[in-house]
Task: structure prediction
Amino acid sequence: MTLFRSLHSRLLLCAAGLGLALCAHAAPAAKVAATPPMGWNSWNHFAEKIDDATVRAQADAMVASGMRDAGYTYINIDDTWEGERDAKGEIHPNAKFPDMKALADYVHAKGLKLGIYSSPGPKTCAGFEGSYGHEEQDARTYAAWGIDYLKYDLCSLGEQLDRSSPLQARQIMRDAYVKMHKALLATGRPIVFSLCQYGYDSVWHWGASVGGNAWRTTGDITDTYDRMAEIGFGQAGLSKYAGPGHWNDPDMLEVGNGGMKPEEYRTHMALWALLSAPLLAGNDLRQMSPETVALLTNRDLIAIDQDPAGHQGDRVAAEGTLEVWAKDMADGSKIVALFNRSDIYNEIGVDFRKLGYAKPVKAIDVWSHKDLGRLPLDTRMLIQGHDVILLRVKP
Result:
C-alpha cells in the first residue's frame, strides 16, 4: 500500500464533517489508557502458534515473574484466534480457543485484562475472519466475552483503499475506525482501542479524533537492533501528538526474544519509556532470564513511561551517531538519555543549559539507581556502542 505517502499531513476531523457526536466522544477516551497500556501480546514470539493453553500460561507467568505487580496488565491475543460466523453473523473462536469467555474469566481472576485482535477489512492479515460489515456484532461479542483491549489492524481493507483515489481512501479508512469506535462505546464496556495501520497518512494527526487510544506509527518491528533503532529513533518530532488517553505506538517490545545484546535491549526499553509508548512484551514469559525480568520490571524505567503528566520525550541534540533525548516529568524533573548509535565506544556530552538549567544538576542513574551527585552543566561520559545512559535530573 503506497497511496498514503502522498496525502496531506493534517486533517481536522471534528471540524471537517465527522460530526459533533464523534467530537463529544473524544474526551472520554482519556479515561481509558490514561497512561500507556502495559501488558503482553502473542504475535512477536508465537505468531499463529497461539492457543488457549498458551495464553493462560502467559497470564500465570506474568503474575509469577512480578510483571503484574510492576504494572503490566493486558494479555493480548493477536491474529489467528478467529473461527467462522454463524447464520446470524456472530463470530466464534476457532478450535484453539474453545471458550473465550472462560479464558477471559481466568485472566481476570489473575488481576489481569484480556485483549483481542481484528481488522476493519473482510480478512485479517493471516486470512482469518475480519470485522467488515459486522462491527456492532463483534463489539457486542467482545464485551460479552469480557474483552478489555482491541487491536484493529488495517490488513485487507488496504486492498479497497488501493483501488480508491487518495481522498476516497483517506475517508474510507477513517470511517472504518470511527465505526468500530462507536460500536465499542455502545457496549458500555471500557475497551482500549488500538489502531494498527502502520502510520499511513500521518495517523498521529487524526488518530485521537477517530477514537484511538493508541495508534501504530510504523511498520512492524523485528528482533534486531537496526530495525528497533530505525523505528524508535524515527519517532522524533511526534511528541506533541501524545497524551493521556491517546498514545503514539512504535510497536511491541522484543525484549527477551534473543535477537539483541543486553545493551541493545536497554536502548529498546529506554526509548519506548521516553516515548511514553505502550509497553507490550512480546516474548515467552515462561522462559525469561533474570536479566530480562529485571529489565522489564525496572520500576524507575516503568515510572518514566507511566508518568501521569503523559509527556512524550523527544530528541534535543544529535551529533553523528550520538543523540540526546529528554522528557519532562510530572514532578518537575527531566529524564535525559544519552544514546550511542554506533557500534564502538564513544564519548558523549550533554549541555544542561540547553535543557533549561542554569546551575549544576542532581542526577540519578536509572539503571543502577545510584545517586550520581551533582553533574556540571557541560557533562561528558563514555558509553559503549548501541547503549544508553539514562538519567533523572533535577536542579
User: Anything to note?
Assistant: Residues 314-394 form a domain with the Immunoglobulin-like fold (CATH 2.60.40.1180). The chain has a mean pLDDT of 93. The first strand starts at residue 38 and ends at 41.
